[in-house]
Design goal:
The structure is a single chain. The chain is mainly alpha-helical. The chain has six helices and no strands. The two termini are about 20 Å apart. The protein is about 75% helix and about 0% strand.
Length: about 160
């Protein structure tokens, strides 16, 4: 599971770089076209929003991989190693259950007929493409969480 998680995180890193670079270029071009050339790009706002959504879900997944999500740990700082480990395992299991529910509904939503025939306003992109950021990002996050849970169960002492 660790190898799969590492492979996915490598792909996510490169994808995030490409998405963020593309978004920066598009927004810069939109500003130049609007204020310098007086010819605004009708599609730039829509595309930059789609890129931001994808970047957010990919980044969120990477955050779970590297355990950089926000957490309140004041109680755990005073707990024993065994309590810390049990709390960590319980937290990971709760997050996985939540992700399983979200994954079910997000895949149901993206595969629904309403989304299949829907197109974006400016560039007429099939909406299943930008909407797929939700199930793809959550799937990657679940894989990272499962890998972290296995590592947590296997490790001797919780840090």
């Amino acid at each position: 599971m660790k190898a799969l998680s590492d492979l996915i995180s490598t792909v996510e890193k490169y994808l995030a770089i490409v998405l963020m670079f593309a978004m920066a270029v598009i927004v810069a071009l939109a500003v130049v076209f609007r204020y310098v050339l007086n010819a605004p790009l009708s599609w730039a706002g829509e595309v930059s929003i789609f890129l931001l959504i994808w970047s957010s879900f990919i980044g969120g997944s990477l955050g779970l991989k590297y355990k950089s999500q926000a957490a309140v740990t004041i109680v755990l700082e005073y707990a024993t190693a065994k309590v810390k480990k049990m709390a960590g395992i319980a937290g990971h299991i709760l997050m996985l259950v939540f992700l399983a529910v979200m994954l079910y509904y997000s895949y149901t939503w993206v595969l629904s007929p309403g989304v299949a025939f829907q197109k974006s306003t400016a560039i007429l992109l099939p909406m299943w493409i930008p909407f797929s950021a939700v199930p793809v990002g959550l799937t990657f996050a679940a894989i990272h969480l499962l890998s972290n849970l296995i590592d947590l169960i296997r490790e001797e002492e919780f840090r």
